[in-house]
Amino acid sequence: MLEGVNAIETHELRKEYRGRAVVDSLTLTVPPGEVFGFLGPNGAGKSTTVKMLLGLVHPTAGRAQVLGGSPHDPAVRARLGFLPEQFRFQTWMTAEEFLRFHGRLAGLKAAELGARIPQVLETVGLGGRGGETLGGYSKGMLQRAGLAGAILARPALVFLDEPTSALDPIGRVEVREIIERLRGEGTAVFLNSHLLSEVEQVCDRVAFVKRGRVLQQGSMRELMGGVLPLDVRVDHLPPGLLDTLSGLGELRHTDTNTPGRADVELWLDHEDAIPAVASAIHAAGARLYALNPRRPDLETMFLDLIEDTPDSSARAARLGQGAARA
Amino acid sequence: MRNALLIAELSLREAVRKRLVSVLLLLTALFLGFYLYGIVRLEGTLDQRSLEAGLDGRSLNGASNLPVIYSAMFGMYLVYFLGSLMAVLSTVGAVSGDIENGVMQSVIARPISRAQLVLGRWLGFGAVNLGYVALLSAGLLGGVYAITGYLPPEPLAATGLILLATLLLTALTVLGSTLFTTLANGIGVFVLYGVGFTGGILGSIGTFADTPTLTTLGRAANALMPTNALWLGASYHLQPEVALQVSEAARGANPFFADAPIAAGLVVWAVALTVLAVLGATQRFSRRDL
Ligand SMILES: Nc1ncnc2c1ncn2[C@@H]1O[C@H](COP(=O)(O)OP(=O)(O)OP(=O)(O)O)[C@@H](O)[C@H]1O
Ligand SMILES: [Mg+2]
Looking at the Swiss-Prot or TrEMBL record, what is one Pfam family this protein matches (chain A) (predicted)? Predict the structure, then answer.
């Protein structure tokens, strides 16, 4: 495997349909082995981007490199896996025939396939059902079969276009586990989704797209501007405690409306400050009921970015509201 | 090439699994059974008549055997027609169908070139269609021979030309399925087939009525779509001397049969057009967004 070659590199990638840009100046880098989340509302150009990276759609302008080569090169595609957004396959085939066909296209040997097919079917939760024709599969089972096809040939990079759109809650957890296993094996994953919770839990980095343009990209922490929101609940606020806390981080919100308890939201610069917050509360003589560092909340960021509110004050206000809800 | 063969194999298995092959076999049996039963009855009547006329037997290639000769020829015309119908109908969605139902995306994402896919589709469907026409021709001519003892003068050359027409139509239909939706393609190729047939009719009226303009129009249509010319060429090889004399006497009044062999140039053109259609299909499909 080519170590050090980026899984994906695009430069000013652009696609127009009838003169309208659906993907515009897309510049992305996904290092090898990374799980990358590509987020955006309906029609943002996520699927179009994936199809360009697979050579299914020809870019109008710009450059795309996948695993160090062109996606139009079959040798490059031999090391890719793909679960399309519309997982439609030959309905007359059984799942095993479908996987055998795709395995042979990918260049796997018959003996290899004999061992690998039951293995991937088991992985996606279709163990024992590989002999049924795809025409008789339910929607979720079809998506699972497609996922089996995507990971069949042990690719170096897997594109998953909304891989859980048809899955039950257990299926969603299983997909997360599959993605984590892929990461463990050093496989890069490009995950298209608008299910934020899903992306939040597995992705190393994310990019937000809207109308074909990337609004922001980076690790979750970077996207949050480096802050870590911390929810604190105490029985009361002894005098001086708020002053001490505002020395440790930025005091965002205080709620003392309910008798017998007080909620405080604090934005810290680093998680190392959390023990200091606990000590300060203890020293002030208050009883500590809750101390929750909140993971960066993609949902809130998503809504912010997607709505036309580019100024950061509106975003901060929204983050505050999110805290009040929580 | 390995990938193209893989796709061809897939197309063959698809034809078997979607019951295309079993339906075809059943209909072939029905068609041949029906037609050959007619020939059995015809043969009986002819024998009866020659007995009544006090003759010992009929010469196989003589005028008295013309009904049998023409049955074999019209039978082969039906084979050509059914083969063409089959070539269009079975292949009409070869590429567009898979694009329309979304199957194509996961296939093309694999390390297979688009040219290989188109080639494989053409080979696979071509094999089904050729097999069908070969089976029908063998069944019909073999059946006629078994019943009456008559065999047209050059059955292999005739069948070869019909097979070429089938392969050409398959290629044009594959090309159409990279250009149009499945429905539009089906209609389009049938119209082309009609152009070929019109060419044959115009040509024969032109000859009959001695109108050079019509003959030229007919030639142009035949060049554009040589399937009908291929059939006419095949019909020449199916006629013994006595039938050719009848055709000549009719001076082209019969647009179904020809009294001259096909021009070698037209055969070459038909082969070239087949290759061009497949190449055009690979070109077109390679440019297409999926
Ligand atoms: N073949 C096409 N012809 C014309 N327009 C297209 C075509 N494919 C996509 N588009 C347009 O491109 C835009 C982006 O489509 P795309 O499928 O990439 O969106 P998406 O981000 O995947 O959305 P979703 O979340 O709904 O899957 C849409 O506005 C769509 O109308
Ligand atoms: Mg999409």
Answer: ABC_tran
